[in-house]
């Protein structure tokens, strides 16, 4: 009788451990997918920002060169000063915008994993923190 109880208890503990490991594996896979998505999002943002800065730099260089050549005789210093102010203001605005775009999503970087773990704890009956 005691041996039968011990074997049933061992079988149940083995099933609980197997379910726990299966649950942990699923959550780790989800975490890995979310991490990969974050890396791709950041790489995409950085690549697009770098390309945009390169194209804007070329365009602005040629626009200022044209403006300075057009105003060479009378107002070249005003043209250069105005271009400098415009570039500095635009650069500051773009840096602020880029910083805002690189902020993590409102729910956090791994919101889906945190939500799933909270559901798992609720299923087990653990009190929420």
TrEMBL record:
Membrane-spanning segments: 50-71, 77-95
Pfam families the record matches: Phage_holin_3_6
Record keywords: Membrane, Transmembrane, Transmembrane helix
Name of this chain's protein: Putative transmembrane protein
Organism: Leptothrix cholodnii (strain ATCC 51168 / LMG 8142 / SP-6)
């Amino acid at each position: 009788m005691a041996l039968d109880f011990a074997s049933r208890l061992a079988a149940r503990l083995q099933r609980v451990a197997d379910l726990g490991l299966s649950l942990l594996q699923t959550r780790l896979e989800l975490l890995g997918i979310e991490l990969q998505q974050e890396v791709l999002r950041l790489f995409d943002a950085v690549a697009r920002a770098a390309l945009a800065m390169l194209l804007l730099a070329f365009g602005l260089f040629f626009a200022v060169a044209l403006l300075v050549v057009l105003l060479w005789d009378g107002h070249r210093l005003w043209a250069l000063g105005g271009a400098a102010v415009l570039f500095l203001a635009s650069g500051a605005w773009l840096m602020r915008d880029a910083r805002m775009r690189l902020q993590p999503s409102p729910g956090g970087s791994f919101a889906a994993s945190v939500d799933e773990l909270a559901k798992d704890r609720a299923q087990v009956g653990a009190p929420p923190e």
